[in-house]
Amino acid sequence: MSLVLLxxxxxIPASGFMLCFIPLAAIVLGLxxxxxYTDRHAARPYLRLNPFGPANASTPARPPVAxxxxxxxxxxxxARPPVAxxxxxxxxxxxxxxxxxxSVPAPTEKVNTAQGIVQPGIxxxxxxxxxxxxxxxxxxxxxxAVGITYIExxxxxxxxxxxYVRFQNNTxxxxxxxxxxxxxxxxxxTYTFPAFTLPAGATVVLWTKAGTNEAGNLYWGNRAAxxxxxxxxxxxxxxxxxxxxxxxxxxx
Length: 252
Prior knowledge:
By secondary structure, this protein is of the alpha+beta class. It has two domains: 17-59, no CATH class; 110-249, Lamin Tail domain (Immunoglobulin-like, Sandwich), CATH 2.60.40. The chain is built from two helices and 13 strands; from the N terminus they run αββββαβββββββββ. The chain has helices at residues 14-40, 159-162; strands at residues 110-112, 117-119, 134-135, 146-152, 164-169, 174-176, 181-184, 190-192, 197-198, 203-207, 217-219, 232-237, 243-249. The strands form four sheets. It has a four-stranded mixed sheet with strand order 4-5-10-11, with no helix packed on it. It has a four-stranded antiparallel sheet with strand order 8-7-12-13, with no helix packed on it. A hairpin with a 5-residue loop joins strand 12 and strand 13. The longest helix has 27 residues, at 14-40. The termini are far apart. The model is unreliable at 103-135 (pLDDT under 50).
């Protein structure tokens, strides 16, 4: 087959090629731009263009973004835990003070203003109660454990009615005086103590006259006065015969 070239045909102008190329190029560029745009948003489906679906059908709403903090504004301080109020101690209560015990006056002695002689009170010493420790001096007598403190030898009125000898326990323990003896200086008169205990610090009076013995008073039972008005001596001995106390006076 031989190519027949037409002699004398006119050449195709350049504008004719341009008229064919421009539409083709526009189609190609449009396809390229379409595929590039859709592939670029493959990782973000909400930005992918869906030309076939309804508008905004595949585009979800973006979550709200918190606004940035303003400059020079300090963040809020952490809430402090409530501070408990310190416990309040109850007011101190002053201890109650017991009123002082009323003082019990010691038994008073009767004073004979006419003669200036002290007379003993009746019942000056109480009998020792059960459980009170007593001392039976026996052979181990302490001198002046019981002392003769006074002799009323010249009382007003009849001597026999007012004569007496007073003894006092000078220790802190009751002393058993059972069997003790009191005698005058001439040893003409002797008195023997019956069953008797003298409490600690107590006194007892031995009357010359007769009477009924009690805690603070003993009775000799003599029928006449014993103690001489011109002077005499009284001697107290324990049950063993040991001298415990001696008392002398010069008289009038």
